[in-house]
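Task card 7
Instruction: Convert sequence to structure tokens.
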Amino acid sequence: MSFKRASKVADLIKAEISDILLKQINDPRVQGITVTGVKVTDDLRQARVFFVQMGQRSCSDETMDGLHRAAGFLRRELGKRLRLRYVPEIVFTFDESFEYGDRINRLLAEIEKDD
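Output:
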């Protein structure tokens, strides 16, 4: 499997999951979720979905539970929307890169203020 294909599939999955979460999932535990990225294995069997939640610095157990419970529905909807032989298993991971970037920005601002 080429890297290019996995990258294209990841982009499609990101767009579709974002749309499904916004329009079809009514669970209050997953409100305010933004999908920041998707990494797909080379064999397209697993998709790791990275997300952040508006106003949250970390992921609550309730949010993860809501996403895990919605994973089957999301996978079924992806199967309807995408033309893939196998619909990847969805694994949700809280994206800590935004928190890390925010921390770096705060440190840089603090250094600039000290000078």
